[in-house]
What does this fold into?
Amino acid sequence: MVFGRSSDNRRPVEPVALKILVAGGFGVGKTTLVGAVSEIRPLRTEEALSEVGRPVDDTAGVEQKTTTTVAMDFGRITLREDLVLYLFGTPGQDRFWFLWDELAQGALGAVVLADTRRLADSFAAVDYFERRGISFTVAVNCFEGAGLFPAETVRTALDLDPGVPLMMCDARERESVKDVLVAVVEHALERVSGERRHATT
Amino acid sequence: MSESTHHAQHPHHFFDAEAGPVVRPYAMTRGRTSSTAHHRLDLIALVVPEPAAHHPVHDQSLSPEHVEIVERCEDTPQSIAELAAGLDLPVGVVRVLVGDLVEDELVHVTRPVPPAELPDVNILREVINGLRAL
It folds into this structure.
């Protein structure tokens, strides 16, 4: 703690904040997922698609979505008085990727939310986390009307490493989203414990 | 020629009414775009008021935004990102204002620990248990 005062007896426990990123293509349900578990209304800057944005934002297959998230979009889960988990939805459009690096720094892990109708939209996020060595879990958002594919088919299509967890979810359902987040943290835990074992032997 | 007629005659000026206030938020920081804090405050850095900050309203050097930041963090420490959203201010402005409060020793800020540097991996188990118990 740079500013922390370890001698300060009145606050023996410094609060710890952790973050998990939620990435995926435009309109895949990132904001919905954050909203399903956040104790605060997801905070964000959301603007209607402008005339400028329209040709860029391909909404084929996601016609219901009329706005897009153009800035940080996040929620908060207070696990304990001194333990807070933040969820950050990464910008869904490639032109906002400059925002990703700051978000990714120090992240516990990431969820790549995928839509089997537009699986290719997940490639960029998978690639981003692989390159930066950030542990991630792929969650297939099972939209109504989206064909259900076996997990192995999706895994092959995304060319995932065997160690990357992949699961089906419903981004609207709190329990389902909780399961996804647990998987992300478990994956991060395995990785951190593995590195420590390696370091001590 | 007044400013307004100047703008009316140049409708394609790079900013217009729809661009929103492009300068005003930084008036709160007296034009500063970075604080004297040694490092950039992380989006999830938590702002924790110091006991001395209980009545910041009496400090004449503080702006209403400074006071509001301290008040918002009094019961529950809040992150830079939450403060920016709550105050409807750009993250950059909140970083400067929080930097001032750190300087004045009215708050301190927790530095987020990257997972690989966590002193105790049990904290991740606590996160898992906490999520399951939600």
